[in-house]
Amino acid sequence: MSELTSNLLPATNEDTCGPYFPIYFADPALEDLTRFDPGVVGQAAGTPIILRGRVLDRHGDLANGALLEFWQANAKGVYRTPATEGEDDVDPWFHGYGRLRTASGAYGYRTILPGAAPGRAPNITLTIFSDGINRIVTQIFFEGQTGNDTDPVLLSVGAEAPKLIAKHDGRTAGGCEVYLFDVVMAGPGETPFFDDLES
Amino acid sequence: MGKHGRVLGIGPTDNTSDQRTPRQPLRLIPEVARSSFVPVVPARYVTNPHEWDMTRTAPDRPRADGVPIEVTGRVCTASGRPVPNALLEIWSANLYGRYRHIEDHSGLRLDENHLGMGRVLTDDEGRYRFWAISPGAYLARPDIGRWRPKHIHMSISGGASRMITQMYFPDEPNNASDPMAILMGDAFERNIGKPRDPGGTDVEEGYDFDIVIGGRNATFFE
């Protein structure tokens, strides 16, 4: 896929979002995928969860101002993409894309527990943009799910798999199961991040 | 385990980059899991139709200080396919290098006629247009005298295409010492807006900035 041997246009470089991604661009509907506007009848199918945690730098300090984006399948394990358009198991009330900016570096994201896509354990893709980096990407899995033992992404990181598994914190809050997931961007305990280029 | 992905570069003189850049090589995504890593952003919309004109805070308000510019371009994938109905979120400093952001503690001058934040959508051909104030450079590292060159931030999301980038300006003295520009190397050229005649529009400068979303931002659902 080298640019020398393909007709592909040279891509614009990614760049850091810097420290000032506008809070003004926040969209409450993307920070809570179980949320509905007042007076609207509708409900995403599945088990509501809160994913809570911290984004930490290589000194263990909170990574303030990080922009977090989430992507997942619905409760039946189906992603809403052009490829699944019209399928019965697409949930009309769940698109699976979320985004929030954390001022402090601690976050809480409300969604539904994803279902298992074929051959996969339930997971949420997490993309992090922040000052000092372009983007880093990983997947979050859930403690106790069948399929964790055979998931190709978890298997690919070997002994580091526990770093990608959110722990149930033993309680519910506001009707949601609470899961905890910390991200270590760099240094000791660093979270495995993924690249889709062979380079 | 076989091959690894890239080792991410750390921006020279950028403390935050040192604190936040993963040190381990990135892992390659197993082939069967690749599509699961590509978010498909639901269709977005622009809430405030006047936001394309960032040279004022509202249509009935005066112009902000500085040189008003028009930025136009086309968003496409590496194969040249336009990305229609993509949301561009745009933010930039004012003439004095200050962001109207609660966490900007630089103390630089605010301009009561400058918001510096706007949103536009691309049309069916992937084209976009907005007006802005040509932003000021600012001293990012007073301790070593490093400036951030003038730049406009853009976040693009449409379908399976996602990118956050910055448009820089040609021949700026601080371009060469910018940590992220250094990491881009020769490819930094691609992130510089191309000056053009602004035509009959009510701005003083025009720039073309085409955005190609490719590489690891590949569009999987074209």
Topology order of chain B in helix (H) and strand (E) letters: HEEEEEEEEEHEEE
Low-confidence stretches of chain A: none
CATH architectural name of the largest domain in chain B: Sandwich
CATH homology-level superfamily of the largest domain in chain B: Aromatic compound dioxygenase
Corresponding CATH architecture of chain A: Sandwich
What's the overall average pLDDT of chain A, rounded? Answer: 94
Mean pLDDT of chain B: 93
The residue ranges of chain B in which pLDDT falls below 50 over 5 or more consecutive positions are: none
Please outline the major beta sheet of chain A.
Answer: 9 strands, mixed
Q: Structural class, from helix and strand content of chain A?
A: mainly beta
What's the arrangement of secondary structure elements?
The complex is a heterodimer of chains A (199) and B (222).
Chain A: H1 28-31, E1 48-56, E2 66-72, E3 97-102, E4 106-112, E5 123-129, E6 135-142, H2 152-156, E7 165-173, E8 176-180, E9 183-184, E10 194-195
Parallel strand pairs in A: 1-8, 1-9, 6-7
Antiparallel strand pairs in A: 1-4, 2-3, 2-5, 5-6, 7-8
Chain B: H1 15-20, E1 27-28, E2 68-77, E3 87-91, E4 117-121, E5 127-133, E6 138-141, E7 146-148, E8 151-158, E9 161-168, H2 179-184, E10 194-196, E11 205-208, E12 211-213
Parallel strand pairs in B: 2-11, 2-12
Antiparallel strand pairs in B: 2-5, 3-4, 3-8, 6-7, 8-9, 10-11
Structure characterization notes:
The complex is a heterodimer of chains A (199) and B (222). Chain A contains two helices and ten strands. Chain A is mainly beta. Chain A has a single domain, classed as Protocatechuate 3,4-Dioxygenase, subunit A. In chain A, strands 1, 2, 3, 4, 5, 6, 7, 8 and 9 form a nine-stranded mixed sheet that branches. In chain A, a hairpin with a 5-residue loop joins strand 5 and strand 6 (135-142). The relative contact order of chain A is 0.21. With 222 residues, chain B is mostly beta strands. Chain B folds into two domains: 1-37, no CATH class; 38-216, Sandwich (Protocatechuate 3,4-Dioxygenase, subunit A). Chain B has helices spanning 15-20, 179-184, and strands at 27-28, 68-77, 87-91, 117-121, 127-133, 138-141, 146-148, 151-158, 161-168, 194-196, 205-208, 211-213. In chain B, the strands form three sheets. In chain B, strands 2, 5, 10, 11 and 12 form a five-stranded mixed sheet that branches. A four-stranded antiparallel sheet of chain B has the order 4-3-8-9, with no helix packed on it. Chain B has a two-stranded antiparallel ribbon with strand order 6-7. Chain B starts with 14 loop residues before the first helix and ends in a 9-residue tail after the last strand. The relative contact order of chain B is 0.21. The mean pLDDT of chain B is 93. At the A-B interface, strand 5, strand 6, helix 2 and strand 10 of A face helix 1, strand 1, strand 9 and strand 12 of B. Strand 10 of chain A pairs parallel with strand 1 (27-28) of chain B, so a sheet runs across the interface. Chain B: InterPro entries: Intradiol_dOase_C, Intradiol_dOase_core, Intradiol_RC_Dioxygenase. Chain B: Residues 71-99 form the Intradiol ring-cleavage dioxygenases domain.
